[in-house]
Amino acid sequence: MSAKQSPRWTYDATLQEPIPNVPELILFGFDEIRSALPLPYHKHDGYEFVLVERGKASWELDGQVFETKAGDVFLTCPGELHRGGFNVIEPSRFWWFIVTPPHAANWFRLPFSERECFHSALKTLPRVQHIGLRAVQGFRKLGEAINSNSPLRSAAIRQAALGLLLAIVQPNERMISLADDLAEQFNLLLRRIEDNPEWRPGIEELAGYVRVSPSHFFRTFQSYTGLPPMVYIERMRIRKACSLLAESSAAITDIAGVLGYASSQHFATVFKRIIGMTPMQWRMYQHNGP
């Protein structure tokens, strides 16, 4: 990925100098994707955790697509083939890290009983769970520790990595709740947006759907999803377009009409701005590869 497309920083134990006394950390990184990029099937030797900081991303594993929004973590286990939904990663900002399974006797210097607790917890974690954006600070802390020249660098890395793992396997309920009285209404609204990509509501209609003021709705929606309402709706509309282009032979003009665009030209302009290629180019890529 070029710097223009995606500001990125990674630590990769297979390519860089290993961190002394922390063999458990395989990979750590940050990505900000400004236009959709291909992400084909791949797998890792450890547990991978991806936290979405901003935007929305989808992932495909075993034929099932998992949606993630800001504050969500997506989990894959060692050896599991997965890819971006429809083979791409949408515009978003996210963090990730990969750790070895807790099998080694000195895994993160933990005693046997605690290693077993982690082992049990990791096997039962859901694919997607909402842990909130406070966890971003944990990722930043881990990145700072990796870049540190301190003689206690390895200890700081272990502490930061364990802090993230604890936040994932034992999430703090106060951290993850949006607002208990609004969460269900927002989830219903998001499902309606996803199921009706041609819907073009205004802020007042959206706010009325969840029974809050427009100004409160705007702030809360952006906090919950990582995107302003209209940007989120447009992204979901283009996600539906990706599905229709990949899974049907419908004409692009017909797809534009189904999604409520006034013209195929307008549809193509919006699609290219978000995905980085025209609808026809994207369809050809899905069928033939790069």
Cα gyration radius (Å): 20 Å
CATH class descriptor name of the largest domain: Mainly Beta
In CATH, what is the homologous superfamily of the largest domain?
Regulatory protein AraC
Strand content: 15-25%
- Calculate the mean pLDDT score and round it: 87
Number of helices: 11
- Count of folded domains: 2
Helix content: 40-55%
Instruction: Provide the structure class.
Output: alpha+beta
Secondary structure: number of strands: 10
The low-pLDDT segments are 1-6
Oligomer: single chain
What is the straight-line distance between the termini?
Answer: 15 Å
Overall spatial form: globular
Which helices and strands appear, and what pairs or packs with what?
Layout: E1 8-12, E2 25-33, E3 37-38, E4 47-61, E5 64-69, E6 72-76, E7 83-84, E8 88-89, E9 92-99, H1 112-124, E10 128-130, H2 135-146, H3 153-169, H4 173-176, H5 180-195, H6 203-210, H7 214-225, H8 229-247, H9 252-258, H10 264-275, H11 279-288
Antiparallel strand pairs: 1-2, 2-9, 3-8, 4-5, 4-6, 4-7, 4-9, 6-10
